[in-house]
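Quick one:
INPUT:
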């Protein structure tokens, strides 16, 4: 071995520059047993760093009891305890003001427990994902929690404001002081955010220190939103949970894949430019929203160029981006050559399943075809007619990726899985 990372595919050893794998007609990509670990971006209002939640202790005078799903987050180097919410078996969310994309996961400790009790479960972080379009940090822990994730309230900001919902917000002041603030929804603040303030006659509130703290419907205990910042007047701006759940669904899928595949290293899907440079499949700016585009772009190894293969997809392996949680998708199950690819929430359609068809022996990779492609009979059996392709031909600049008529000799349809830039 020369020290480079290797990948085992159907018992064959490949270096990081490898063919995707040849398969017989009608067969889909075989299992990779790889082990090792338009909308403007939201800019949260940082406000002033003032007194934290001033509500009452949840239990007795010391506020040491916990509320299931509300997690305590401690980061080495941060003297304050932060608050988050459990959104999956081993997945929590907090404000990206406290945990950034550069935060070392090994420095993060997450604690959770059971409502009304103190049986706290402590976990170490394994991965951190911060998407530039959303004001949150997603933390996957090394182990699952015994407690269930919170239930997401489906109401929009407008529906929470009219009629005004009563909510209970929870936050940690210290590791031993856990507080509740009774609030009511006062008005919307855009399509995705709303303002809460103390229930009439009370003075408890949340402040900027509590960014990331979750709030729950006071009647059915569903999670309605999380704190962003304080605009003053004892009020707090919240982001509606229903308006971020699309992104959380993608992160849950990525977390599940990591667990089921044995914590694999995400790969890049690469092709070679005429200059010899490696170009990668890239989600522009890590856009997490439906119908985001897909380009080839010079490889830099960022999370928006990193992928996992989802073998739970019923029609064939799907490529899921680990920065957005979305899948490569043929819009509308189109069978038209020239149709640009998009990113879309993962589903069971054939337009998200992919097959490797092989390529010319002189090329390093394989052609890739969506399972929604028409097929024709050839001397080698039934073959797809449409392949993943760089629009306009081989290029060393950013270009859209589309489906085009297959050409096994075309370098701009030649793809391989890589781990190095």
């Amino acid at each position: 071995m020369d020290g480079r990372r290797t990948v085992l595919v159907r018992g064959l050893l490949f270096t990081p520059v490898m063919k995707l794998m040849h398969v017989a007609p009608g067969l889909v990509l075989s299992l990779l047993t790889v082990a090792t670990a338009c909308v403007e971006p939201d800019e949260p209002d940082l406000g002033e760093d003032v007194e934290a939640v001033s509500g009452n202790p949840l239990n007795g005078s010391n506020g040491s009891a916990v509320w299931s799903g509300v997690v305590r987050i401690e980061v080495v180097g941060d003297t304050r305890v932060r608050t988050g919410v459990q959104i999956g078996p081993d997945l929590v969310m907090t404000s990206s003001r406290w945990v950034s994309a550069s935060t070392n996961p090994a420095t993060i400790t997450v604690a959770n427990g059971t409502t009304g009790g103190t049986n706290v479960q402590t976990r170490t972080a394994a991965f951190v994902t911060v998407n530039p379009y959303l004001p949150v940090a997603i933390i996957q822990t090394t182990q699952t929690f015994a407690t269930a994730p919170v239930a997401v309230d489906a109401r929009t900001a407008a529906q929470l404001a009219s009629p005004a919902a009563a909510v209970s917000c929870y936050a940690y002041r210290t590791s031993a002081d856990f507080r509740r603030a009774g609030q009511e929804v006062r008005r919307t603040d855009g399509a995705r955010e709303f303002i809460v303030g103390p229930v009439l006659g009370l003075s408890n509130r949340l402040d900027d220190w509590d960014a990331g703290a979750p709030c729950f419907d006071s009647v059915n205990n569903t999670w309605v939103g999380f704190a962003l910042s304080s605009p003053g007047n004892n009020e707090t701006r919240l982001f509606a949970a229903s308006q971020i759940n699309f992104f959380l669904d993608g992160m849950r899928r990525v977390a599940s894949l990591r667990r089921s595949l044995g914590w694999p290293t995400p790969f890049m899907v690469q092709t070679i430019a005429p200059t010899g440079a490696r170009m990668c499949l890239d989600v522009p700016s890590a856009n997490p929203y439906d119908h985001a585009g897909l380009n080839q772009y010079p490889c830099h190894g960022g999370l928006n160029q990193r992928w996992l293969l989802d073998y739970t997809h019923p029609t064939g392996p799907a490529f899921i981006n680990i920065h957005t949680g979305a899948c490569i998708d043929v819009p509308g199950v189109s069978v038209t050559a020239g149709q640009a690819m998009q990113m879309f929430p993962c589903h069971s359609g054939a337009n998200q399943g992919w097959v490797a068809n092989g390529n010319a022996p002189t090329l390093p990779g394989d052609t890739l075809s969506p399972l929604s492609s028409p097929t024709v009979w050839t001397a080698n059996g039934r073959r797809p007619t449409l392949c993943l392709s760089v629009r306009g031909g081989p290029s060393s600049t950013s270009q859209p990726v589309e489906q085009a008529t297959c050409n096994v000799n075309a370098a701009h349809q030649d793809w391989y899985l890589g781990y190095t830039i």
